Amino acid sequence: MIADAKQPELPDEQRIVITGIGLTAPNGNSYSDFREALLAGKSGVQDYEIRYFGKTFAGVCDFDERKHQTRKDRRRGTRAASAGIYCANETIIDSGIDWPNMDRSRVGIYVGVTEHGNVETENEVYEIKGFDYDTQYWSHHHNPRTVANNPAGEIALNMGIIGPHYTIGAACAAGNAGMIQGAQMLRLNECDVAIAGGVSESIHTFGIFAGFNSQGALARDGDPESASRPFDLNRQGIVVAEGGCLYTLERFSDAKKRNAKIYGELVGYAMNTDATDFVLPNPERQSACIHLALKKAGLVAEQIDIVSTHATGTTSGDLQECSGLRSVFGKSQKTYINNTKSFIGHSMGAAGAIELAGNLNSFTDGVCHATINVNELDPDCHLPGLVINEPREVGDVKYILNNSFGMLGINSVVIIGKI
After folding, report:
1. Per the count of CB atoms within 10 A, which of 82, 92, 248, 303 is most buried?
2. pTM score, two decimals?
3. How far is CA 143 from each of CA 81, 140, 271, 406, rounded to the nearest angstrom?
4. Domain count across the chain
């Protein structure tokens, strides 16, 4: 057994902690409800139909769009931003920050997205078709709806935030990338509070379903609740999902001053690139990203208690990630591995942030939620600590590692430690 590595000593002003969580997922609209659904094995995938494509499956959220947003603002805005507004308000409420007296110029918004604008453009083209494509009927809201900074910008408008806001386009690694950006900005003293994570409205664009289908990478057959099945020998592909998860990030020194509850500390993170293929992942580069995150955290693989995998239910993606994980954690006797997409599908830009949230309560209850829908484990996906179909009591959890990878070879890893 390799001896535990020593974490780097950082001043409290450079330590970044999570003090709030705002979340909407296909099987829960709060951190606690989401966790409860995961432990109960409750899927959020349902039958779904979208124009020009037809019947399929999707992970659909049912959060209250009007809880923090007016009807008028929702009508002129986007679904992704609506999820972001819901999550941003909920995370600030959860954090206990004295929001009315907060200096909004010292709040930053860093929202990861896979893509943005497809839904709105498809909708407008569909609408003007009924007017013989006369562009005078094209919505004047189209441009602010489709600019890349829209989700973060709508949050800023809704909450009166006048610090930096932007979205991070990082494909399906974007949820982690949003958190990494927020942490970096806090360390640079560019803000005092970072609202960071990812959002997705992907199920509302027929193009993403058609694209995955043309790749032979879309799940379409059988029962919706068992359609998303990473690691299973008979997996059939991706289930597209929407959702959002935004965290309140603060410096440990500030969180201590106000006696805030702390979900965990962001002790390590890394991003790198495969530079080998548009779509196919590279396990060597993925494992290199994990090693880099471990190095930054001052940890060795054996110290990681839970690994939250990215696996989407495609043959190539699952096999490549398992190969990379095996090279890092293959000798560890105490690292448990799970997957959240098996419950909710692939929420694209929100995936990393949502999936991390599904595991954070392990610091408290010592339970690792399962990967469901694994009826017959693919032998090439065998990993010593893989938790299948039933949650597992794992004891004291100190470190959680969250994988999130995306097209064009972008990889991200975040490590959260217990405080």
Report:
1. 248
2. 0.97
3. 14, 7, 31, 26
4. 2
